[in-house]
Design goal:
Layout: E1 3-7, E2 10-12, E3 18-25, E4 33-39, E5 46-51, E6 58-60, E7 68-73, E8 78-83, E9 92-100, E10 105-108, E11 112-116
Parallel strand pairs: 2-11
Antiparallel strand pairs: 1-3, 3-8, 4-5, 4-9, 5-6, 7-8, 9-10, 9-11
């Protein structure tokens, strides 16, 4: 049974930082590209950042470039999202995603709320 469990969300003031973590189990973690998505009410889920299975390649949404950093630790089966210089528009539920295109497998976590407000 595959599980992705996010943690680290919360309330932070504008300009602050948060670090999200996603712990994976039940899958061969090093075979999966990992991503963070976010969603606000009434809007589609959007890709925030992604990292290749070995961590050699990363991609970011234009709205978070230079502020967010995605990383992974394959020894710990974990992926992280360091979020700096947070803005109110970063407020959303953040979801961890694991994808293996060769196996056509996609998994999602349950989400963690991030609220940026003074």
């Amino acid at each position: 049974q595959v599980q992705l469990v996010e943690s680290g969300g919360g309330l932070v003031q504008p300009g602050g930082s948060l670090r999200l973590s996603c712990a994976a189990s039940g899958l061969t973690f090093g075979s999966y590209a990992m991503s963070w998505y976010r969603q606000t009410p009434g809007k589609e889920r959007e890709l925030v950042a992604s990292i290749s299975n070995r961590g050699g390649s990363t991609n970011y949404a234009d709205s978070v470039k230079g502020r967010f950093t995605i990383s992974r630790d394959n020894a710990k089966n974990a992926v992280y999202l360091q979020m700096d210089s947070l803005k109110p528009e970063d407020t959303a539920v953040y979801y961890c995603n694991a994808q293996n295109i060769w196996l056509a497998q996609v998994y999602w976590g349950q989400g963690t709320q991030v609220t940026v407000s003074s």
